[in-house]
Here is the input.
Amino acid sequence: MSHLEPYLESFDADPGYLNWASFGPLSPAVRSDAQADAELLGAGRTSGIDLVWGRLGEARALVAEMLGASADDVTLQPSTTQGLMHALFGLSGAVLLSPHEFPSIPVAARRAADALGRLEVRELAAAVDTVTADAVREALTDDVTAVAVSLVDYRTGYLADLPAIREAIGDRLLIVDAVQAVGVVDVDWAAADVVCGNGYKWLRAGRGTGFAWFSPRARERIEPVLSGYAGMVGELGDLEVGPPRPGADAYAISPVDPVNAGRLAVALREVRDAGAAQVAARVADQAARVMAAADAAGIPVLTDRTRHAGIVALAPEARHTGAIAAALINNGLTVTVRGDLIRIAAHAGTPTDTVRRLSDAFAEAAAITPPPAVVDLAPLDAMAMPIDLDPPARAES
Here is the structure.
C-alpha cells in the first residue's frame, strides 16, 4: 500500500460533496486529535495543558516544512485575511492587485491605504480576468513596491505561475493568498515573499487554522503595524510597551488557540505523509474528470485546462443554470452556484462514483432544459416585398 492510499481512504464526508473550495469537512484524524486535546485541557493538569500548548510549535514547524522555510519565519493566524492585513498594513509604496480577487486582498489593501495614507492601490484592468506574468508586467510602474495575488483564483480555479510573476516583478514583494492552494498544489513557494493560508478548506483542518510566512526580505520592508502584545518583546507587568519581537512573531496580535494549531498540525502531517506532489496530482486528475463530464454534456468550462488545482468553474448559458443547479441537488451533489457560474471542487479522496452522479445530473438537466426557440423564416420570406437594390435611372423631364 502506498502512502497515498491511507490518505484517500480517510475521506468520510458525504460522497456527493463537491464543495471543498468552500469548506473542507474535517478529517477523522483531525477530529480525533482535537477531541483528545480538549480532554487534556478539560482535566486541568499542568502537564496536559503544556502538552496542548506544544501544538503551536508543531504547527509552525510543519508549515515551514511545507514551504521549505524556517519556522522562525512562520506565524500562526486566526485566518488568511488577518495574515494579509499584517502584510498590507505594514507596506509602503503601491500594491498591484486584480479587482477580481477574493475580497481578502482588495479590502485589506484599501483599508490600509485609507487608514495610514502611505500605501496606494493599483488595479489591473477589469478586462484582465487572470493574473498572468504578462498582465502584471504590463501594469507595473516604478512606484509599485508589491504585487498581491491569489495562487488559485476562487472564481475560475486558475493557478497563478509564481516563478513567472517573480521574474516579471523583479525585486518587488510578492504577497500570496494561498487559501485555495494549500494542501492541493505542488509549487515553488520560494518565489513568494509572503504566503498566507488557512487549513479550513483543502487541508480539512477546520476554521481558525490560519498561518502566514514572512521571508526575511519581506520583514525588512513590512512594518509590523498591527503587532499586539503577543508580538511584543517584554513581560507582563512592564510599564513600557516593548518593541515588536524579532522574526515573524512580530506579526501577531494575541495568542493563537493551541487546539486550532493542533488541528492544523495533524492536517499538514497527513498531506506530508501522503506526499504533497501525489495529492496535487490526484486533485488535478479529479478536476480533469469533472471537466470531461461537463464537456460530454456540452457545458462550457471556464477553468484553464492546463493551469488549475481543484476548482472547476462552469459557465452554462444563463437559461440553463437553474436546471443544472436543480439537477445537482436532486442527485445529492453539493456545489457552489454564484450568478450564472457553477463551481465544482472535488478532492483527492472524492469517490469515483461521485463523478458518475455528476454526469447523470448534467444529463438530467439537459433533458428538462427546453432547446432554444427556432423561428421558421420561410413564411416571412414569402410575404416579403422584393427590394431592387439597383433601380433604373429616373427619366429626364
